[in-house]
Backbone:
């Protein structure tokens, strides 16, 4: 039984100096320091359980998201957790519709990332109080309750509450078997680790086949066509003609440029090319969809991409979308349009979080692994208390209660920006 | 000649307690305190001129935008103003493409509002150094230089640099006459002051016909259908059948709801219904465009709304778009699609700023007043050093050098949040 009143919300600016090694570099983000606005919720309940929520950022700007979390705090503090999750739709609406804060969103950018961090903490706490990993909390929830977590504002033209319930009801068949299948074999993963844009060729060759990832690979492209051709050729030659290769342009191109560039990379047979252009450009994505372009985006954008048939794969993101609530609506819309969901992950904690969503999706919504896989990047898991468990290139379902969002206390302390030990050293070395 | 190195950037959280009087209330923003993140740029030049930039906000959350301005500051400090405006496209690109900050945007929400505030200050300073009001600086600029301020990323599928130059060149004919026409008669305005959602009927009736605004009116709708019908009937009866009535739903509706609601309000013959649904929903806007729906949005969204023929009027916003630079690209796209631009204004300073853009648009781009007018709201002008001058319901072209962005020093001091005198009193009265 969910209980307790939220007595404290604290938020930390946690940054890992990944830019020092070129990890995570791409055509638009050349020097990312993988970071997070990290929320901790405490209640007055005697169980002493805390909820942890993160949203992923790239270094500079994390302080802006932290500021936005603090702006949202009055909507959470002193609220009863039972009342929050008992009317989760209402709580989500309250958080995203503050009459003054809404102006600086709405439902996008900084404010939305902050919303995700706060809601992720609520979900973590809820799952912990129920003593279940989040995916299992969702799997065991009846359709009506699941759907009551979704705000249908702006999506009823594509998905109504009744349709959502019906999809969930129809997917009850075979649920138990699918849960057993997940527990035995896990959810298939693919890796991007092998080909960050900032990696020299020698590194590219080395990392190709670690940890059982010998089936699917993703390469970052978009900065320089000749270099892309050279690197794609190198990776394609390394993995052979049969294995799956994906590409990611990280919003680098205009629409005509995307079509031209993607035509030139077609010989390396990418399964998809991720984020070819502006994430806001529905019609642009539709125009270039023949080249299999896909992006991690917001609910209203996903709705239109599905309507416009501008996606062949849909990439959810556990922190860019407004937590589990929005991911539920996007998973259900994808099911309605029969588009496979292949989550975006990596960063800090994105793998830890999104595995819960995609495992739930398989068991309770999509009921299929056809053309589906979840991104995996082998970075920074050591900072999490309940890190992902990858076995034979598959995500094994988490068994600990919660949303796997909790970081190790010492990691948070050392990487707090700018006063953690790691940053103090780095900044003093830079003469700041 | 533009000169000087930016030696200081300061930013203030300035809020006006407009919620106390129900001014500015609408279906989504029930208690707005009209506010601004207010940027001041100083240089080491001997002229002592400062650049002032604002972006409009609604109270809570202004501190988040202030935080984002500070995050952008390193891109501005110690830069030579001549080099900034000499490669304005490059500077705009640098500001919007910071490899770490971009993640918490891109080009939307908090970070983009902050970008607008900073760039507005740069334009103000540039115009001041040239000794011209901003509209005149733009009007006198040759097409090639104007176009060099625009970043064409993500819009080349609709507008190329060459097309933009060609539009500007073709509009040279009759420019002098149009400038004289503006100086003599001003740019037509319409008012929203008359019908905020929070106004009682008695107030509605009183404010109907002040300051020469007897031709066009805008009413806020979307919260309650029966009440909307009652209020629209009251206003329509008051103004008679001939005058122009606009409506604004401030994103309140789903797509099917919008169609239904707008059908019921059709008897009052609105010229347009503003922001019927999510600002991200291109296809939704297209679906309901027959009802004349329009919104103030971002460049990539405007591009698609024009492509999808989802707009009959286009409403630019001087602070939601990334300053003059992005407004130039949207004005040129609107010209290409022959869609009339009717700017969004009101708030704090939006009227002061946008008048420059629309006067430039008439003289140098659209060359037409057909179906065109600029919103005007009679609030808070007394806090500006160079307030708008309205004569016979028309914006008279500003004559002072700059972008009319500068606020009175005393107003800023008294309304700083939370330490200005006005807020100290209010907050202590609320027991905070």
Residues:
């Amino acid at each position: 039984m969910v209980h307790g009143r939220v007595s404290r919300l604290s938020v930390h600016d946690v940054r890992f100096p990944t830019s020092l090694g070129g990890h995570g570099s791409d055509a638009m983000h050349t020097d990312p320091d993988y970071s997070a606005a990290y929320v901790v919720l405490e209640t007055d309940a005697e169980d002493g359980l805390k909820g942890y929520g993160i949203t992923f950022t790239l270094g500079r700007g994390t302080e802006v998201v932290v500021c936005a979390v603090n702006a949202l705090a009055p909507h959470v503090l002193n609220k009863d957790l039972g009342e929050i999750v008992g009317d989760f739709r209402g709580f989500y609406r309250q958080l995203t519709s503050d009459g003054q804060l809404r102006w600086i969103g709405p439902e996008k950018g900084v404010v939305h990332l902050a919303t995700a961090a706060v809601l992720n903490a609520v979900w973590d706490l809820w799952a912990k109080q129920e003593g279940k990993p989040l995916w299992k909390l969702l799997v065991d929830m009846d359709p009506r309750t699941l759907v009551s977590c979704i705000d249908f504002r702006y999506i009823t033209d594509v998905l109504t509450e009744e349709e959502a319930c019906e999809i969930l009801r129809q997917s009850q068949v075979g649920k138990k078997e699918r849960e057993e299948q997940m527990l035995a074999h896990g959810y298939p993963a693919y890796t991007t680790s092998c080909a960050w844009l900032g990696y020299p060729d020698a590194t590219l060759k080395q990392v190709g086949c670690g940890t059982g990832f010998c089936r699917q690979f993703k390469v970052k492209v978009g900065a320089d066509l000749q270099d892309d051709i050279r690197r794609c050729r190198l990776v394609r030659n390394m993995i052979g003609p049969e294995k799956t290769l994906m590409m990611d342009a990280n919003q680098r191109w205009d629409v005509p440029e995307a079509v031209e560039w993607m035509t030139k990379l077609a010989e390396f047979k990418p399964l998809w090319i991720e984020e070819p252009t502006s994430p806001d450009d529905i019609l642009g994505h539709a125009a270039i969809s023949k080249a299999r372009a896909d992006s991690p985006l917001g609910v209203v954008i996903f709705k239109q991409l599905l309507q416009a048939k501008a996606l062949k794969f849909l990439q959810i993101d556990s922190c860019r979308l407004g937590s589990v609530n929005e991911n539920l609506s996007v998973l259900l819309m994808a099911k309605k349009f029969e588009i496979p969901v292949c989550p975006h992950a990596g960063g800090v904690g994105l793998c830890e979080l999104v595995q819960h969503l995609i495992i739930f999706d398989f068991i309770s919504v999509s009921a299929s692994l056809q053309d589906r896989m979840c991104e995996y990047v082998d970075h920074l898991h050591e900072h999490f208390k309940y890190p992902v468990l990858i076995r034979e290139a598959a995500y094994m379902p988490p068994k600990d209660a919660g949303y796997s969002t909790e970081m190790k206390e010492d990691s948070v302390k050392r990487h707090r920006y700018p006063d953690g030990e790691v940053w103090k050293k780095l900044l003093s070395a830079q003469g700041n």
